Amino acid sequence: MLVCFISELAGAAVLLDNGTYDSKLQPLLRRTILKLIVNSNNADYALILRMIQENIGCCGADGPNDYLRLEQPLPPECRDSVTGNAYFYGCVEEYTWFVEDKSGWLAGLCLFLGFMQVINIALSLVLVQALKKEEKSYK
């Protein structure tokens, strides 16, 4: 149980460190999305990039200028389906904003479960002591 408790604390710490704005996750996302844009002539890369941009509602790593800088055409999924304008924010910012809301709840849940385990350990020790005391009284 101690290993589980330490794992939950470590997981919550990593989640809070990597799941928020200006984290170590952003450069990795930026490199990955730029790699997807450069290799968008490959069908698999294009599908992944299309799914990211459509589901998050973003364009490029840092905005539509990434496509211009890399001399790639602006894809239709970079545009708002209602207005037709290109999304202003890049996928790195949109994704970190999305994860920031969720990471606080998940880290709180991990900490809650960890402290429930601590309470469980304490109550188990009390139960063991009570059983030993009861066993001595019967002897």
Automatic annotation (TrEMBL):
Quote the InterPro entries the UniProt record gives: Tetraspanin/Peripherin (IPR018499), Tetraspanin_EC2_sf (IPR008952)
Q: Which domain of life is it from?
A: Eukaryota
**Mind naming one GO cellular-component term on file for this protein?**
membrane
Classify the protein's membrane topology as the record does. Answer: Multi-pass membrane protein
Which spans are transmembrane here?
A: 105-131
Question: Which keywords fit this entry according to its UniProt record?
Answer: Membrane, Transmembrane, Transmembrane helix
Task: Fetch the CDD domains from UniProt.
Answer: tetraspanin_LEL
Q: Where does it reside?
A: Membrane
Protein name from the UniProt record: Tetraspanin
